[in-house]
Design goal:
Length: about 160
Amino acid sequence: MKVEAKQKITPFLWFNSQAEEAMNFYTSVFKNAAIKHTSRYGEGMPLPKGTLMAGTLEIEGQDFYLLNGGPPYSFTPAISFLVNCETQDEVDHLWGKLTDGGSEQPCGWLKDKFGLSWQIIPSTLGKLMGDKNPVKAQNVMQAMFKMCKIDIKTLQEAYDKA
């Protein structure tokens, strides 16, 4: 498996046996995603011949390396991928796709059907929460605490209250 070194650090994701399904899923979720390289298990290897061993996936210019390594490890929320979204439509699209078969979590977090944690966050959240007026920032934070999927309009209304 050849991994191009266009970035210094590449996330490496260990799957039991669903790496190929995950690669296909993520390329269907993100508009700018593509499978770049794959390699398959041969005879006498840990998984059946022809099963994807590893692959490189690019999402929005970020490479990810996926491995079918068997069941010793699983994902935890201690590691997540934050996706900055510019519009509510983008938040809604990604939230809907990534929670299909997964689960919603508080404050813009979710787990996809593979157990991988994502944060689907509108870029405006950081701007509003970073306001110099502590009342405005606090209002936004309190509104966010009540949400799973982040709603930009509700954040803006909370901000405008102060």
